[in-house]
Design goal:
11 strands; EC 2.1.1.244; 7-stranded mixed beta sheet; SAM-dependent_MTases_sf; alpha/beta; transferase; methyltransferase; globular
């Protein structure tokens, strides 16, 4: 999750039944408040929540309590260190969503690659952020890129990824594709190699980063993109304009509106967006964003789609 990136671990994991009941009853009130945590506590604003959690607003790093911020990240990492390094583990008990997740991600990626790169022959390189055990790299990225780098803060996840992505454990049509670099670094501390990546893929992990670290990460990562390169952010979302704070793994699930405000602060534009389909009804809605550094030309679909889905419950990548 962040994985590969956080401390807080990256991917999100489903909320246990006891807490899921709390969120279901509270979800009806989300339009009346700015946010809620997994214990049912309501917050009038994201700033109030960040002040309590990290001693600052979450958008002013200098104003945050560094001890609280370290605790935020260490608790997240500790949570994921206790999770089994398997598909079922990183997906929080929802291994059943793996196939549909990969299918929808691949359709989105295959639509974007020719739009961004045309028929140009490129040596394609991707970065898998919050890579976990290499699930996305193995099932998706290595089928479309010549090289894939992985960044993941949870060491036993990354070691499993090394094994899963070794030449003898992957089947691929093009044997020139390979997992190249494995970085055991949290996203808030990671800086990509300048100009190396065509696509930077961030899935089920960015919720571990407070707003300021979210913005700082994307600002650093922009320099890692090649010409016409882009980000794919795939994340859980809430309905309405509120947020949900998970007190167990120290992560925040943001709304589409919340995300778009942060994208603007990062100097990023939504090239296109798509809703993930065919997920269990109890999970949060999941959205995919293609983010670019230049303003899209008119005619490119940047319209917000109406969100579908039912009760919240979190996933991890």
């Amino acid at each position: 999750m962040n994985t590969a990136a956080l401390p807080p671990p990256v991917p999100l994991c489903p909320i246990p039944p006891r807490r899921r009941l709390v969120l279901r009853s509270a979800s009806k009130r989300q339009m009346e408040v700015s946010g809620i945590d997994s214990n049912g506590r309501e917050f009038s604003s994201a700033s109030e929540m960040w002040r309590e959690e990290i001693g600052g607003t979450g958008t002013e790093a200098a104003g945050s309590d560094q001890t609280k911020l370290r605790d935020w990240y260490s608790k997240g990492i500790s949570y994921w260190q206790g999770v089994e390094a398997s598909v079922e583990g990183v997906l929080g008990g929802y291994g059943c969503v793996n196939d549909t997740d990969v299918k929808e991600s691949e359709a989105f990626l295959k639509m974007l690659l020719p739009l961004r790169f045309g028929k140009e022959k490129r040596h394609l390189v991707a970065l898998d952020c919050g890579a976990g055990i290499g699930r996305v790299s193995k099932n998706l990225l290595l089928r479309h890129f010549n090289e894939v780098d992985l960044v993941e803060p949870v060491s036993h996840f990354l070691e499993t990824a090394r094994e899963n992505l070794s030449p003898g454990n992957i089947m691929q049509e093009d044997d020139t594709s390979k997992a190249t670099n494995f970085y055991c670094v949290p996203l808030q501390d990671f800086t990509p190699e300048p100009g190396r990546y065509d696509v930077i893929w961030v899935q089920w992990c960015i919720g571990h980063l407070p707003d300021e670290d979210f913005i700082s990460f994307f600002n650093r990562a922009k320099a890692g993109l090649k010409t016409n390169g882009f980000f794919i952010l795939k994340e859980n979302t809430t309905r309405g304009g509120g947020f949900v704070l998970d007190k167990d793994d120290q992560s925040i699930t943001r709304s589409d509106t919340y995300f778009r405000e942060l994208f603007e602060r990062c100097g990023l534009y939504v090239h296109s967006a798509r809703d993930q389909k065919e997920l269990p009804k109890e999970l949060f809605p999941v959205k995919m964003y293609c983010l670019v550094t230049e303003k899209p030309r008119k005619g490119v679909n940047t319209a917000r789609k109406r969100k579908h889905g039912n009760r919240p419950a979190i996933i991890k990548s």
